[in-house]
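Practice set, problem 2.
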Amino acid sequence: MDLLVGLAAVAGGGFFGGVARWALSHLNSDTRHPGTWAANVIGSAVMGFSLALPNLWALAAGAGFAGALSTWSTLAKEIGEHIKGRRWADAASSVALTAAVCVVAAYWGMVYGRRAFG
């Protein structure tokens, strides 16, 4: 029974994360990808926050919502497009900015999660 409840929590969170990811994908243009960047930053913050949540909520928020919202494979594809187009500065800034901001977002998500849930 616990396995089914855990799977339902992940599926429920994944549904909402997928809907949020779909909505953010409409922000992308040909060369700029703010929707992908926002999805990964928000997903990192939610993952950090979920570390302080009780078990089922952590599964729903972390594995479900943040897992469905974040899109590292799309980021890799977009960086590959920059490299193919020889837009080296765009590729480098995308990698550096995303990595740095996502680490900070995960940290602050964890800090606020601990403040909220001890």
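Problem 2, part (b): a different protein.
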Amino acid sequence: MALVLSNTAIPLQEKDDFNSENGSGRLLARKERKARQTCNENPTICHFKESPGPSCCERKCVNVLNDRHNCGACGKECKYNQICCQGKCVNPSSNGRHCGGCNNRCENGGFCAFGLCNYA
């Protein structure tokens, strides 16, 4: 009987402060609210260390220098065979400055074929 009285002695409001509806604590509930915030509402969240990039495009933080769906600017999408290197769409199969990947330059005036320098 004493156990029942001790459980009912805690005011209902105080109990709700410590436990949200899904059973998580007050601190976790605050973190969940922050996680739902988009960069449209608060653009500075794109400058945090964990952010994928400093630009806000379509309510998402992106890096327009290497995001193929927002290459160089929001909404500028690279074609299916291209990648985004330094904000420009390039074909890594044939581009001598980005052969096989970004910033992979073919040396001595070599050519790029199938993503390989001087392939033949």
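Answer key, part (b): The helical segments are 2-8, 12-18, 26-35. Residues 80-119 form one domain.
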